[in-house]
Design brief:
5-stranded antiparallel beta sheet
């Protein structure tokens, strides 16, 4: 009897990663109610035209080759807030494109309506105090850093963002995944 209990206990850690994948993409879970979607920007964006921008809600998100957990995982994002472009929706999955142009399918609850961007320049990008050409620099943002778009404000030259506890304006051409 002890032998079987020991085998069961030894096998439990092996099942934990599998259970995590199933929990993330359980297709029996109800899709968000489109009519009752909250107005906050971090909700799952179930309404709207395609393509549109959003971000990853979780720190670990599986990207699949098709819209269902029967399709193989192509890669796993490990970056909360990473900006993505929603291309289309099929059932409980979004087809997405990332800043590098890669495409795949992600379970709907892994997506947030929070608009973000990523610093795409090779050198640090300046974060300005205001949208004025003579505005002082508040901080330098490292290449690859995620920024949160504030109030979805992105003018013709600069975007209002928050990054690293600072709020300010970044030159639009230095950001990826913004309109």
């Amino acid at each position: 009897m002890n032998k079987y209990l020991m085998l069961l206990l030894m096998g439990l850690p092996l099942l934990a990663p599998v259970a995590h994948v199933w929990a993330q993409e359980d297709e029996s879970a109800a899709a968000p109610d489109e009519e009752n979607e909250a107005a906050t920007s971090s909700t799952v964006p179930t309404k709207g035209k395609f393509p549109r921008y959003a971000s990853l809600k979780k720190g670990e998100v599986n990207v699949r080759s098709g819209p269902g957990n029967q399709y193989p995982i192509l890669w796993i994002y490990q970056r909360t807030g990473y900006p993505v472009q929603l291309l289309t929706r099929y059932d409980n999955y979004y087809k997405i494109r990332d800043a590098e142009g890669e495409e795949g399918w992600v379970y709907i609850t892994m997506i947030s309506g929070q608009r973000t961007g990523v610093v795409g320049s090779v050198a640090p990008t300046m974060l300005y105090k205001s949208d004025d050409d003579k505005s002082p620099v508040l901080a330098k943002l490292a290449p690859g850093l995620n920024v949160i778009l504030k109030d979805d404000v992105c003018g013709s030259a600069r975007c209002k963002v928050e990054a690293g506890g600072y709020k300010g304006w970044v030159t639009k051409k230095d950001l990826l995944m913004v309109e």
